[in-house]
Amino acid sequence: MTKQNIHEGEKKQKGFPAGNETPVVIENLTKAYGEHVVFRDLSLTFPAGRTTCLMAPSGAGKTTLLRILMGLETPDRGTVTGLETKRISAVFQEPRLCENLSAFANIRMVRKKKLWEKDKGSWEEISRGMQELGLGGCERQPVREMSGGMRQRVALLRALYARWEVLFLDEPFQGLDQESRERTMAYTRKLCEGKTVILVTHSMEEAEQMGQIVRLPL
Amino acid sequence: MTSTTSNRKNKIKIWAVAAWLIIWQLVSMWIGQEILLVSPAAVFRRLLTLLPTGEFWSSVLFSVVRITGGFLFAAAGGVAGAGFAVKFRRVEEFLRPFVLTIKAIPVASFVILVLIWVPSRNLSVVISFLMVFPIIYTNVLDGEKQLDRKLMEMADVFDLSRPVRLRYLYLPQILPYFRTGCSVGLGLCWKAGVAAEVIGIPDNSIGEQLYQAKVYLNTPDLFAWTIVIVLLSFAFEKLFLYLIDRGVSLLERMR
User: Are A109 and B172 an interchain contact pair (Cβ–Cβ within 8 Å)?
Assistant: First the structure.
């Protein structure tokens, strides 16, 4: 089932599009893979305009929950509201970049609608972002030639560059050294201020710096 | 880097070609009968006499147009078929027996069958098509099935438009499969296309020239025309693969 399909039911029920101030609410969400129940009757509210940091032990279903919210998986039961008309963006656990393309092309593609449309300042905007994350001068470098940490930052920049109202971050700072991590966290905080962000992390330090902590009852 | 190195290793060396020509010349001199094994020098002389004639060029043109035409139809059909097959399971199920049957039937059977339905002048178009279609179809379908699912999910989350998906995700992943299909198909379509012409004997074709050489036991002509076919097949394979590679590099340079 696609993202649109999952939320279609709720859209009809509510009868009005969700605004930017609408929180993301999950109610009685249940998901199982065969015998293995990932979570049962999970209910949570992610306030609009804030960063919520989800914390739980490994294998507890944080990523599954994000995937359901992103519309990539269907819950067995329960509802998700507040995402119906919102544009979403994400950093996945892996960078998920096009290996043969440059860092710039990977980031640029998320705002492109037509292949031949003019760039209108995107080079400057992306270069500035790359500069801030310590990737200055790597715009034309193919992603396949980049280290894991560099790819991670390109994936984060791509997510931030996209037009979004709700951002999902699945361990976005993993694989970064201390200095890069702090710089990247500061940059992310700046760009996410006043916006709805759902972040999954194992690091208490990251969670404390980024936003409100929610420990999942999983 | 690896592919470049292996390309360099796979290149034909001039010394090796020269060595084979010398062996050929020596064996031909040892047999001493041109009708059994013509010498390379005699073949070269025959080629030089064929080249300036209008008949040579009209035969080449006739076969090139039809065989490459059949190849192009097959390439377009294979890509379109694979596109539909990956989208609609029923199309794949419908095409599977057709593709398997075409792959299994010998070229000679096809030629005789098709001769009943199609005029001999268009035989090589149909035969080239039938030989190449399953290869391109199967390769492109394999490429589509191997698409990186994680990248597809990324495209769904970012709501990428169709042209953007096509250019950034589908084409770079499918083109290598298409390229391999073309490389195999181009060699095969020339072999099968000319074989069809030899059986169908359409006027003024390379196949007819080969047939005449066989009837009159004209070994120098047979070898000369065979060399022409090998060169044409080689040139078209290089040209098509160059165009595909050029397309890929243009895609990669596009922002």
Answer: no
